Amino acid sequence: MRIIAIANQKGGVGKTTTTVNLAAALAEKGNRVILMDLDPQAHLTTFFGLDPSQYEHSCYDLLLKSASLDQCLIQLRENVQFLASGIDLAGAEQELVTVVGRETILRDAIEAYDKPVDYVFIDCPPSLGLLTLNAFGAAQEVFIPLQPHFLSLQGLSQLLEMLMLVNRRINPALSVSGLLFCMYDARTSLSAEIVGDIETYFEQQRDTDTPWKDITLFKTRIRRNVKLAESPSHGKTIFEYEPNCKGAEDYLSLAGEVIDMTKQHELPADTVQTSESLPPVVHAEEKTIIETPAPEAQLTTQPQVAKDPTQGQS
Ligand SMILES: Nc1ncnc2c1ncn2[C@@H]1O[C@H](COP(=O)(O)OP(=O)(O)O)[C@@H](O)[C@H]1O
Ligand SMILES: [Mg+2]
What we know:
8 strands, Rossmann fold, 8-stranded mixed beta sheet, alpha/beta
C-alpha cells in the first residue's frame, strides 16, 4: 500500500483535480484506491456530488470522535472508497490543538485498517495547519502539484521546509516523491524557464540528506484543459466526462508513471534503475534556482527555494 498526500498550501494549483483523476485512472487499471478529503472546504466531497452533512461518519468523526476508517469509508465507484470531509471539519483544526497525539490520529486509523488497498490519496487543504500535519504524519509520500509560475517557488520553499521538519520530528518514513506541473502551458517561455529551474534545483539535491532527494519530477505535465474544469460540476471524473480529451490523456499518462514508480519500489534494490529513471541531469555546479529573475521577480521578493530550508530564512 502506498499512502500519498497531495499537498501544496497554495489553493487552486490542481490538488483536488489530481486526487480525483489520478485515483480514477489507477482504479480503472484495477488498483484498489482510497480517497480522503482532508479539506474543510470539501471540494473533493462536493466533486462527487456528496453532501458532507449527509454522512453519519466523516473525516471529522475519524479525527475527533474515534470513529474507525472502516466505519467512515463510502464505496464510491468500483475499486474506489472515499472518506468525506465533514461539515465540522473547519472546527477540527482548533479542536485538535488540545488532543494528545494529534499529529498521528490519521496514521493510527490507516494502520488499524486491515482490508487490502493499493493506494491511499489524501487531498490536503490549502494551508499548513494540523489537518495537513495529520496527512504528513500518515503518509509515506507527498506529491506536490505546482503551477509553473514564479510565485509558486516561494510557496514551494515553505512547503519543503515544513516537510523537512515533519520528516525529522514526526514521520521519518516520509519522502517527497513526486512533483507534478499542473495547468501547464507549453506556449509560454516562463513556464519552460521555471520548470528548468526547478529541475536544476532538485538535481542538485540528489546527494543531500533531505526527504526530497529521490523526488520524481513527473514527465507528464497536466496541460490546461477546460474539460478538467467542467467535469466537477457534472460530478464526474475526466474519464467519465470526456475520456478522449487532453486532460484524460494526461492523467492516464501520470497514472502510468505512478505505476512505474510502484514497480521500481517492488524490485530488489540492486536491480532498481537509477540514472535511467531520473529526469535529465543538468550540470550546473553552483546555479541557483532562479539565476536571472523572471520579469515578475523584479516586482517581488527573491525566491527562497534555492536555500536549504533547514538553515532557516535569512
Ligand atoms: N489542468 C487544468 N486545466 C484547467 N482547469 C483546471 C486544471 N486543473 C484544475 N483546474 C481547475 O482549477 C481550479 C482549481 O483546481 P483544484 O484541483 O480545485 O485545485 P486545489 O485543490 O489545489 O485548490 C478548479 O476549478 C479546477 O477545475
Ligand atoms: Mg482542493
